[in-house]
Amino acid sequence: MVGHYDEGMERRVVAQAPAHLLGSVDNALRLLQTLRDTGAVSITDAAADLQVSPSTAHRLLSMLVYRGFAVQDESRIYHPGPGIVANVEAQSAHRSLLQILRPHLDSLSETTGETCNLLVRVGTTTRFLASAEGSDRLRIGSRAGEILPARLTSGGQVLLADLSPQVLAGLYTSNAARTSGEFLDAEAFARFRRQLDHIRKVGSALNRERTERGVSALGMPVRGPEGPMVAAISVSVPSPRDEALGSERIRSALSSACQAGAADLAGG
After folding, report:
1. For the IclR-ED domain, which residue ranges apply (predicted)?
2. Is the Cβ–Cβ distance between 251 and 1 less than 8 Å?
3. Positions of E strands within the chain
C-alpha cells in the first residue's frame, strides 16, 4: 500500500526554464547549488554533472573562486567560499551521505530504468542532493540541487513522518511557519498529521504532481546508525505511467536500495 497526501493540499509547480536559457549562467548556478548542498566538488565531477568538458567546468569554477563563492584546496577540490552562507556540519553530513548512498542510487536507477533521487530534510524543505537519471526515453530529468517544500515531496513526507508531534507543530504551526509561508491552521495540521501517521505505517509516500505537473514519485526512508531517518530515496516517473510506482518490481527495488544504504551507513 502506498502512502499519499492529496486532500486539501495545494500543488506547487517548479519554475519552468526560461525560453532563452543562458547555459553558462545556469551551469554556474548549478555549481553553486552543488557546493552549497555537498560542500565539495572536483572538476571531473562538475564536468560530468553539467555534461560539459573539463576545461569548461574549470573556467566556471575559476570564476566562482574569483568572486568568492568557492575555494580550492591542495587536492584541487573546490569547497564553498565566503560568498556562500553554509552550515559546515551539515555540509560534512551531506557529503558523507552522498559518498555512501550514491552507489545505491545509481544501482536503483539501472535496475528500474527510472530517475532516482537522494533527498535530505532541512527544516520544512527537502534538498535533492543527487539524481541518477533513468534510461527510459521518457524519463524525468535530474533534480539535483533543487529545494522544495518537504510536505509536498514524497521523500520529504516520509522524513516528516519520523518526527514527533511537538517538532511537527514547531515546524508548521509556529510564528516562524507563518513567516516562511508553511503555516497550517488547526484543521489542516490535523489532516496532515493523520496523513503522516498513515505514511509511517506503510513506510512510503507518493507524490502525484504536487511539485511539478506531469511528474509522480515514490519515496522511502534511509535510516541512520542510531535509528532515525537521515535521508530518503525516491523514484520519479512521468505521471502517465505512474502506476509503475505501485508495482512490486519498483517498490521492492526501492526498499532494497534504502535497506542496503542503511546497512552501509551503519558500517555493515
Report:
1. 76-268
2. no
3. 70-72, 78-80, 115-122, 125-132, 147-149, 205-208, 215-223, 229-238
Cell output for 193: 498529521
Distance from the Cα of residue 204 to its chain's centroid:
15
* Secondary structure (DSSP) of 159-198: HHTTS-HHHHHHHHSSHHHHHHT----HHHHHHHHHHHHH
Please say if the pLDDT value at position 85 is more than 60.
no
Q: Domain 23-80: state its class.
A: mainly alpha
Averaged over 17-45, what is the pLDDT?
Answer: 81
User: Which residues make up the CATH 1.10.10.10 domain(s) of the chain?
Assistant: 23-80
Q: What is the pTM of this model?
A: 0.71
Rounded distance, CA 183 to CA 200, Å? 22
Q: Concatenated DSSP letters for 201-220?
A: HHT-EEEESSSSTTEEEEEE
Q: Provide the CB-side half-sphere exposure for 162 (13 A, CA).
A: 21
Average pLDDT over residues 179-188: 88
pLDDT 10s digits, 137-175: 777 888 888 888 999 999 999 999 999 999 999 899 988
Which CATH number applies to 88-265: 3.40.47.10, 3.30.465.10, 3.30.450.40, 3.40.50.450?
3.30.450.40
Instruction: Show the cell assigned to 36.
Output: 552549497
Cβ-Cβ contacts under 8 Å for 91 (sequence gap 6 or more): 38, 39, 40, 80
Q: Where in the chain is the domain with CATH 3.30.450.40?
A: 88-265
